[in-house]
Give the backbone structure.
Amino acid sequence: MLTKAPQPRLLALSNYLRAREFATPSSSGSVEVSTPNIGILILPDGKQPGMLEDLFLAALQGDLLSKCIDQYFECVDTATTNSMKPLSKARIHAWLSAQDPPDMRLGFAAQKGLFDWDDPAFAPLKDFLTLL
């Protein structure tokens, strides 16, 4: 089981579920056995703040293209006053633009096998889905 997630998001989800009389998991990554089973996983890993794109970026850490993307955003940051927010979404879109086809969506890229599902970054998600 994962450690507690960032409190505001977990609290908001717990309150939402409780108000609708569903079982309420006590922490991110846990599942309450009920009908239906209810689980909460705060992405990317139940510990760090972030989003779905951060999970996939973590799996790309050793990827040479990921290093190129880092250099690109350093250049963009130097050349403009634009602040890419949220940066995770911009970085994953830059990575996706270098794939074939270049306008691919994240879900399609995952289905196409462009991510190594055995990467440790996906372990918390796999563990959570197994609990469900």
